[in-house]
Amino acid sequence: MTLTEMFTICDLCVYAPCLWQGSVSHPRRGGESIGGDEEMSKAVMLSVRPKWCEKIARGEKTIEVRKTRPKLETPFKCYIYRTKGTVSHIINGKWVQMEVGGTVIAEFICDRIYKIDKDSTDFLFKVGGLSVYKQAAEEKCGLCVAMTDDELHGYLGHCQGYGWHISGLKIYDTPKELSEFSRPFENCIDKVCDEFGCASCEHGGHIKRPPQSWCYVEKTRRADNG
Question: What is the pTM of this model?
Answer without folding.
Answer: 0.75
